[in-house]
Amino acid sequence: GGDHTITYPILQAVAEKHGPVGLVHVDAHTDTGDRALGEKIYHGTPFRRCVEEGLLDCSRVVQIGIRGSSYDPDPYKYCRDQGFRVVPAEECWRTSLLPLMGEVRKQMGDQPVYISFDIDALDPAYAPGTGTPEIAGLTPAQALEIIRGCKGLNVVGCDLVEVAPMYDVSGNTALLGANLLFEMLCVLPRVTTV
């Protein structure tokens, strides 16, 4: 729950225990802006703050589903300069993400990993109840492939953010969010599933 600002203090606490962690970040946006509306802490800036504080192992950060408009001619430059792997949404269109998740598992290794999932990674046809919807997003099946593809990783925490039920009269966004969070709980280490 909450907006993506909540991930910043969570990762501060996680890094205090585990040191810099890998990150599987599923989102329409990189959330690495420097400032928004004059503020350095905002739902579009948490991962820049995390980099600045050394909370992330930048060689083990992957951002999946990134898309949307930008004021910058190279909106992913900051991320790539940090060593992040950026997987734009168009690389996910019309394909299974199982091969990608095989690569992600190799990249993450056995070191601690955090999963941060912004519901706007999904196309607004499936999840309209969010504050910053972007067209041409992931499908629910792809979201499951990503989350289930994290099984076996050393997942030390996870979140699902940016669900805004008041923007979705159908209730589907909240239902989808709850199911994705349940799936994340199922991939935590030592959780047995049938």
UniProtKB/TrEMBL annotation:
> Under the GO molecular function aspect, what terms does this record hold?
agmatinase activity; metal ion binding
Q: Which UniProt keywords apply?
A: Hydrolase, Metal-binding
Q: Is the keyword rRNA-binding assigned to this protein? A: no
A GO BP entry: putrescine biosynthetic process from arginine, via agmatine
Q: Which domain of life is it from?
A: Eukaryota
Asked whether the keyword Hydrolase is assigned, the reply is yes
The cross-references to InterPro entries, in alphabetical order and at most eight, read: Ureohydrolase (IPR006035), Ureohydrolase_dom_sf (IPR023696), Ureohydrolase_Mn_BS (IPR020855)
Give the protein family.
Belongs to the arginase family. Agmatinase subfamily.
Q: What is this protein called?
A: SPEB protein
Source species of the chain: Pelecanoides urinatrix
State which gene encodes it.
Agmat
